[in-house]
Amino acid sequence: xxxxxxxxxxxxxxxLQAISRGxxxxxxxxxxxxxxxxxxxFAANALLKAGAAARRISGWAxxxxxxxxxxxxxxxxxxxxxRWSGGGVAGNNARLLRELxxxxxxxxxxxxxxxxxxxxxATAARPGDALVVEGACRGRIALAPRGSNGFGYDPxxxxxxxxxxxxxxATDEEKARHSHRARxxxxxxxxxxxxxxxxxx
Length: 201
Prior knowledge:
- This protein has a single domain, classed as Maf protein, CATH 3.90.950.10.
- Strands 2-1-3-4-5-6-7 form a 7-stranded mixed beta sheet.
- The protein is globular, with a radius of gyration of 17 Å.
- It is α/β, with parallel strands linked by helices.
């Protein structure tokens, strides 16, 4: 069963393809994601993107919205994670370290959160379908970036399950087990298995 993953982020596509390996689904992307993220939550933004993509291809589409929530910053950058600094990944990470300057390690708690929306448009024969699941992982923000794996804030996000190594230091397999995106996707697995059995493609 083929499902369009509505993203222009090749890192996210590769990560979800790794997470879904072994399942009877094939995730692909056409490199188009032209929907403005105007929702006030990760779930709302994921639904906007998945719904638009599903209508565009008249089939199943999956979309994600995810980000970092830092306790000491009142949950920021949150839904603005990707565009927080206006300076891309490097600017975002620099701003995060700047905002947390002087904050001790025991007060640098943070969480990654991901919402995944799976949609199919309505037809004359059936109503449309939409499902949103969320996943999260809790850790803390490192005092300095470590590791070159992952993307986004990964070099600054330490996870207890990894012995407080950052996602930037984690292997792809470790991230596929522990990440917020993996935990969200895990909630879709039973449904995807059922859909793959029912869909003709």
